[in-house]
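Quick one: structure for this chain?
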Amino acid sequence: MASEAISSSIMIIGAVLGAAVLITAILPAIFSAGDTFGTVSSSAEQKLKTDFRIVNTYAYDNSPDVVKVWLKNVGAVRISIYEIQKSDVFFGVNNQVSMRSYPTGFSYELKGSTDGYWDIGETLEIVLTEPTEISSGAQLYFSFALPNSVRRTTTFSTNN
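Got it. Here's what it folds into:
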């Protein structure tokens, strides 16, 4: 009878220790996987809510050459000026495309904004600083990519 009590106690202690080891090893992995899924879900939701359109383009082949592009925020979220400054602009003339960064490759102006955000419905003006030489009738390529990889692209020609 004493041997049965001792062996039952050893079995119970072993089961409790085994359960504790499993809980300590598995629960952190489950929680970290949950955090990963939450982060991915949040990132995907942010991308889905972010949207903008290229509403107008202007390129003039005078001296100096001028290229301006206007974009309108039509998404469900406002975009910080820091995201605009970290964005990439791809511009090219006749298939000679290069990437430009703020402030040396492009400048911007938020029309009607006073709070440091590109709010829904507001227009963003991108001005390419020192664009490559543009000839009359040239095919121009423009692409604007936010840091979250949402991008819009257009091709256009000079305005004479």
